[in-house]
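hey so i finally got around to running the thing on that chain from the lab meeting. sorry it took forever, my laptop kept dying and i had to restart like 3 times. anyway pasting the input first so we r on the same page abt which one it is
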Amino acid sequence: MPRIAGVNIPDQKQIEISLTYIYGIGRSLSLKILDRAQIKPSTKASELSAKELNDLKEIIEKNYKIEGTLRREKMMSIKRLKDIGSWRGGRHIKGLPVRGQRTKTNTRTVRGNVRKTVGSGRKPPTETT
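ok and heres what got predicted. didnt touch it at all, straight out
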């Protein structure tokens, strides 16, 4: 398995898809990187030469924020919002949607699958007497 930026890249997938295993690189960015490195996106990761792998590593590490750096920067910006007491920071603290979505319904992904009303959720099986 090739290793780029501390992440093991899957061998049997196309390099375009394999690069997306790195945090901070999606499909469009992986295509830009491969275009800059002059590598065909349909090439399997296991078929890359050592020179091509080095070129990819160099391009990614010099030009883009990925993995730990990006995660740290994201955490710091959220922490800044919390510290200054902004509305968005408060939403982060409470674990609610931050970007203006409705909360009466449709917030299961942010809050977890917690149903607080009496009539909803699974009912325990009734005991026979």
